[in-house]
Backbone:
């Protein structure tokens, strides 16, 4: 058994194995040196504990586990929402173009990848899976046509993506204790933002109303620019124009006050606290399956 | 920065070092030179530093020992992006539609807001203004402008994602998070203009650290980001304590 070969094999599928094992490669040398001194019989145990440390399945702090399970719940919801739109037998709208269906497939695949990634990271700490039967994307009738009307489907999709972006942003600070987990969460966060941007463009393409790819103000200057008052909670606080005591509206270079306020709102996305996200998510979960 | 630059310390730099020592006391550092076109130097500093020492040569120094270094790094990239979009918005390619012109103007305002926000937030700790080099961009060509915009936006996303775990303050981390998702929205929009549906083509973003199997966006360390961005920056950027 050659530990160096094992690590090299792992490195082919996980380029960051050395970083996971220890932020400093130099420290690996010391491990190899220890390896020379301990008996071959003891090696597998040493290796096992080293990998456990690297992937952190049993050592994640409780706060981090909570964040990841919270994220996992949202990813399950998003996955089922899109997966059903692609495969559900009660879906009666048709995609206007092949590209539209491909885009929804791309997004569905990313949400599935996020679910799998989070389940893997959490290991035995992962929450119970959410099944499609646990969900209610018609939201008790608020979005009764979500799977029969393409525009309603896209409107709800926008709500999910913009909520997802806000939810991850709101949890980033809780992950400071685990830089590796934080890194992964940030990489999911910006993918959700890319999804949101595209869904907004799909909505614009599907109708006569323009939805900017970025979060702006509504027609009456309200925080919700989605045109769907039922999702006001998704955009609550997105109209902030002051960041860290800096009045952004004064520094955008925009030619007038109206444009400057829009630019100030658009240039910074806002976080959403966990309780607010849960309230939104619970609209789409069956009684008895709601998050707490 | 590609590590073609593991060259021996050159004499001129050793001389600089001695000058440096006179100014701020004993320190030993090693400068990896050779990012010739980029004008960016990665410097590994051996000793604890105080703020306020003179920049090496006439460039700017990003000292990653604390959050100010990360914020200045973001400030540098926002300077680059803002300069690019100011130029595009002032004279867009003739083939741009009215909607494209309007959105590129929006993006211009966003990037100016980011740049000026960092400048204001950093106060006296802010690096100076960078001089850009856009010689390689044909601002009359939509494909050149869109290609550059995509490169800048994707690079920006990778930079914020890669630098996030270096930030120690939850306040600054959140501010970076507020900005990176806007950059990702820009990136997706520009990508869709180039090729509809490529908004989150994570396979194409793999060179920037994305992972399609995990559904993970780009993330790069500052040295790699600056090596790419350096093509567009004339000002020498020194990087220490990375």
Residues:
């Amino acid at each position: 058994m050659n530990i160096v070969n094992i690590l090299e094999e792992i490195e082919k599928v996980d380029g960051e194995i050395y970083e996971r094992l220890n932020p400093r490669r130099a420290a690996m040398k010391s491990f190899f040196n220890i390896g020379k001194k301990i008996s071959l019989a003891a090696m597998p145990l040493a290796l096992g504990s080293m990998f456990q440390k690297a992937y952190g399945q049993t050592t994640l702090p409780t706060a981090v586990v909570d964040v990841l399970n919270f994220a996992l719940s949202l990813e399950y919801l998003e996955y089922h929402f899109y997966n059903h739109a692609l495969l559900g037998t009660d879906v009666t709208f048709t995609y206007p173009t092949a590209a539209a269906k491909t885009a929804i497939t791309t997004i569905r695949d990313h949400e599935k990848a996020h679910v799998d990634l989070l389940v893997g990271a959490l290991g035995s700490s992962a929450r119970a899976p959410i099944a499609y039967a646990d969900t209610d994307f018609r939201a008790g009738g608020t979005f009764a046509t979500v799977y029969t009307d393409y525009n309603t489907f896209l409107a709800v999709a926008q709500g999910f993506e913009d909520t997802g972006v806000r939810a991850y942003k709101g949890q980033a600070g809780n992950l400071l204790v685990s830089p590796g987990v934080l890194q992964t969460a940030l990489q999911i966060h910006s993918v959700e933002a890319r999804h949101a941007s595209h869904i907004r463009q799909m909505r614009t393409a599907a109708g006569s109303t323009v939805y900017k790819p970025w979060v702006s103000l509504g027609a009456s200057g309200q925080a919700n620019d989605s045109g769907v008052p039922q999702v006001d909670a998704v955009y609550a606080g997105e109209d902030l124009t002051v960041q860290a005591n800096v009045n952004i509206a004064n520094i955008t270079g925009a030619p007038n006050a109206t444009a400057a306020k829009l630019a100030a709102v658009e240039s910074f996305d806002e976080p959403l606290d966990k309780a607010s996200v849960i309230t939104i998510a619970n609209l789409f979960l069956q009684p008895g399956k709601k998050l707490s | 920065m590609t590590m073609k630059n593991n060259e021996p310390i050159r004499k001129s730099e050793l001389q600089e070092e001695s000058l440096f020592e006179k100014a701020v006391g004993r320190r030993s550092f090693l400068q990896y030179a050779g990012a010739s076109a980029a004008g960016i130097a990665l410097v590994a500093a051996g000793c604890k530093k105080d703020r306020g020492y003179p920049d090496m040569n006439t460039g700017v120094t990003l000292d990653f020992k604390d959050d100010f270094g990360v914020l200045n790094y973001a400030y540098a990239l926002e300077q680059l992006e803002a300069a690019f979009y100011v130029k595009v918005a002032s004279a867009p390619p003739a083939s741009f539609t009215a909607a494209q012109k309007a959105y590129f103007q929006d993006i211009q305002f966003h990037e100016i807001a980011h740049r000026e926000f960092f400048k204001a937030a950093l106060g006296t700790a802010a690096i100076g203004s960078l001089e850009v080099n856009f010689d390689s961009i044909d601002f009359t060509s939509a494909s050149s402008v869109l290609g550059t915009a995509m490169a800048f936006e994707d690079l920006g996303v990778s930079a914020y994602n890669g630098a996030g775990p270096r930030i120690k303050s939850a306040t600054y981390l959140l501010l970076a998070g507020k900005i990176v998702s806007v950059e990702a929205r820009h990136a997706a929009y520009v990508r869709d203009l180039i090729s509809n549906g490529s908004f989150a083509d994570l396979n194409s973003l793999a060179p920037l650290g994305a992972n399609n199997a995990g559904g993970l966006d780009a993330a790069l360390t500052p040295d790699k980001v600056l090596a790419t961005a350096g093509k567009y920056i004339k000002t020498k950027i020194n990087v220490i304590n990375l």
